[in-house]
Batch of 3 targets.
Target 1
Amino acid sequence: MDFDINISKNISYIKDKFCYGKNSDIIIREFENKKGVKCFLAYIDGMANTIGINDFIIRAIMSNVDEKEHFDLLGAIQYNNVKAETSIDRAAASILMGDTLVYADGGEKCAVVETKAFDKRSVSSPDTESVIKGSHEGYTESIRTSITLLRRIIKSPKLCTEFVSVGKINDCKCAIMYLDDLTSDELVNKVKFRLNNIKGDFISGAGMVEQLIEDSTWSLFPSILSTERPDRTAEYLAAGRIAVICDNTPFALIMPISLAVLLDSPEGNQQRWQSGTFSRIIRTFAFILSILLSGIFLALTCFHHELIPSQLLTIIAETRRQIPFSAMAEYIVMEIFFELVREAGLRVPNAIGSAIGVVGGLILGQAAVEAGIVSPVTLIIVAISGIANAVIPDYELSSGIRVLKFGFIILGGTLGFLGIGAGIILVLTMLAKQSSFGVSMLSSTTKQNSVNGNMVYQRPIWKQELRAFSLKPKSLRQQPQISRLWAAMEGDNE
């Protein structure tokens, strides 16, 4: 709806839209300038800079003595960021973002002044992605602050930011960020298409947006990476990927990804390739261990005794002699118990969260063993599986693995290695079919898409010459073949 040239009708529309009279937050101020032109402004108390409104909008307009035939509203306002808006509905939406609507009688458009001044959390260290090497800055809930943190790292005029709003009630603003000279146009259009076609009343943040645009809704493995680190986001943008930052959420969504990206450390290339490769091997081993360890050990103790050394088999049999539950029930009960301890540690205040973890993991576990409810071997296996799960850097991936682990426990306890093998084939098939915005989740296992390494190998930084083929970047080469020019000059063969 466009503005009416009658100021009274526009004021009535804004009052009706914002429930003026019932809603104490909306401020509507009517005034005149020295030439007698009637004006009004509207903003939300607490979200706008009232000092700036008084000094550089109201005072500037009221003291304006411009002798032009028509009053120039935009020229009279002494504010940094002012834009014209012809739609009264879009101007009203800007008020909800902390801006101020200013209208002069007889005009066909208003001025929208960026006067945002609401309180927000200051930049702090990331909570879930701590590193030894690398930046210690994390995103905040303010989308503008998060974008600024990213632009401080990528100082390129080709870094584009496009805004899309989702959610009918809360109008959640999402920023699509990409490097225009690197990122595939097809990928950019696909992300914008999905975001523009989200329909819903309330979209609270990145977690809901992720679920609404991901490829594989029913898979336990995420197809979008969440990160709270601007430096990590910048690295993925430079590789030709896209980041989506949502207002009120201190995370960025990275797409497309592969399984190797989910298992990669936030430190990434900050580590030397030897230690980086060793860390990747450990994380890959932990990934496999957290899924299969409980199921494999249960299959061994229930069906395949011949594969267990006789001395160890005797110890296992002796510890299980007084246990009242079946082996499978014992593992399921212990895994549920550890999940309860994990959830309790997350939900209670930080001051007592660590204490609950110690009490639940050590004291209650030891008490259960001494009472003869579970065997000590089961407790050890479940604890190792839990520790391996904690090694996985991505929280969404580790959560999916915890669910998948119960499936392998049931398969191992009922069908032995036959069930474990069938489960592995099923998971690999699911991963092979799963994609992230057109990129296979197993793409890093092919030679063309593992140019910089894979899940278990990290190439030296000076050998990472190409971007992944699967991303279809506009520029495939990210550094020259000889990047250490000094080494070539000194006769060192790269």
Target 2
Amino acid sequence: MSEFDYDLFVIGGGSGGVRAARVAADHGARVAITEEYRYGGTCVIRGCVPKKFMVYAAHFSEDFDDAESYGWSSEKHTFDWNVLIQNKDKEIDRLNSIYIKLLENAGVDLFHEHGKIVASNSVQIGEKTFTANTILVATGGTPFVPSFSGSEHTITSNEAFHLDKLPERIIVTGGGYIAVEFAGIFNGLGCQTELVYRGEQILRGFDQDVRDHLSKELVKKGIGIRLNETIESIELTSKATRKVTYTSGETSIADQVMYATGRTPNTENIGVESVDIALGQSGEIIVDKYSRTNINNVYAVGDVTNRIALTPVATMEGHCFADTVFGNNERIADHREVASAVFSQPQVGTVGLTEHEARAEYSNTQTYRSEFRSLKHSLTNNTERTLMKLIVDGDSDRVLGAHMVGADAAEILQGIAIAIRAGACKSDFDRTVGIHPSSAEEFVTMRTPVT
């Protein structure tokens, strides 16, 4: 009989924690997990899944306009915010119950309370304390709002999913994917939308052509973009109106101000100090390649480690941890060439190196780029343009990166990611017969490098 209550105790019921718990249980471990909010984590409950529903909703206004050029006519369409929110919440409830059922079917003991490490082998849940041979922290992250005059009058992505009504005017602050996505959502739903970012261009860290191209498309769709600007103060002039003053001295009026300026790891009040778990500058838990902290039996996965804050990455890390520790199968989470998408309008899909990164590492970097108006829009008044780009090592012919801005970019880049992960060369792309007519075929028809 083990001296511990459990072989594994997981704190946090998001994608990484749930996957780790289920896989460890499948390997025969006695597992418990606790989540103080809802099972499913940021992505399922208040992140990428509900946000994708809202992206779908926002895109219909443009689809309705395009449909007229294809012969469709109908009465004027109206949008009901409450119907969207109610249906979204219903689906999130369903997904939450699925996560709970998956854990129960795997034999995992579930708790619905705050979990806190009180010793290297002990976790406190409410008034009770449980012991475990191994502890996994998977508490995720939370939106960050800087402190300034009037910061209490802002919302984050958490609150944006539950607004009582759709604002007529909104200011979204930030230049990352969350800010860009929500700017597109609110603009598509009919809000007067302004995107404010302190940098010189949105989507820092992405390929420069992608950044510039998307910025132009957002402006064409009616989003106002203020670059090299920050908010100095917010004044509540009435119950529903906010006066925003920028550091430049200019002002704007909005019904809501949303901050999407980054997320911080959830390491407060979970007991990391009780066992001296090492933290990084941003409060993230420092781990090695096996997701192990400086305490041998304490591990961490997902956003709380601040490696790559993507749901599939957290899932991969949780699975690798469980296989390694409980499955007698050493696996290291591979963070190279992780594909990602921005569900902006138009979408962004990307995998591998940017042109800037490639030129810093490879002396003979070649870039292939194509920009065009998609076939769908040739009958419409829609001026949206698609961008596709390949980054190639001219010496080895290996494709180092692929980037796209346009409809279905995420779906298209998922397949491209497999090829790049397998080490595909530009000649492999060239030998591949395209699917015609499609936008995706452009990736196998670009023949002449632009640089």
Target 3
Amino acid sequence: MKRLLREPLLHFLLIGALLFGAYRFLQAGKPDSPSSREIRLTAGEISQLVQLFRVQWRREPTPQELGRLVENKVQAEILYREALAMGLDRDDEMVKRRMAQKMQFLAEDIAAAREPTPAELKSWHEANRAAFAEPARISFRHLYFSPDRRGKRAREDAAAALARLAGQPQDAKIARELADRFMFQEVYRDRAPEFLGREFGPQFAKAVAKLPGGSWQGPVESGFGWHLVFVDTAIPGRLPDFEEIETDVKRGWLAEQKEKAWQKTYQDLRAKYTVLLPAPPK
């Protein structure tokens, strides 16, 4: 008997029983309101269940299938309410993040409910034209001269090859015989400076943008080595007119309105709270 009384499991069970009894006693005087035990499904919710079934199965649900859909929704609502009653939503980071996200979506939806006037969109476009700028585009072929294979002679070999290619078209057969194999492409079509900067390095991108078209030019240095470049076409950057990008402008305006609405909502909510932080460590 003494050994049994010293068992930690027995202590745990006794404490649990006491807590359960205390909880039932405290809740005894608080009967559930009728509405808390009532689950009411609207015609719209039933219609939504049917529509989701149609989308998934491409047919109407049978009465039995519809009954199961309704019962599944009832089950989810019952379990949700019981989980809230037991406090399972407390101290759950996933639940907190989901609820916070829904609050943000709610604030943004309020902003999205209003349609902008044409005057508002045009004014916003004028103030944000740079965001819609179309970058320059360039198409070219290049020949690569590898420092790994040629060492310090890479640039000199590129310059000598350029002399031999004078007046030659970009697809001249002799071109490949003069250069080394490149790990990526030999021909690039309609590429923006940003892409070339990532692929070859910003120094190469700036240099190629300044080359005249229609002939072999170089040598141009990149992060890989040295290149001869034949620019085929170069399209300068431009700022498109409002009429060309009205849909994109509206999308940008709406995104900004959502962000403003969310920031205002959060600041209003934040002002209601006092945040206490621990003292910094000494």
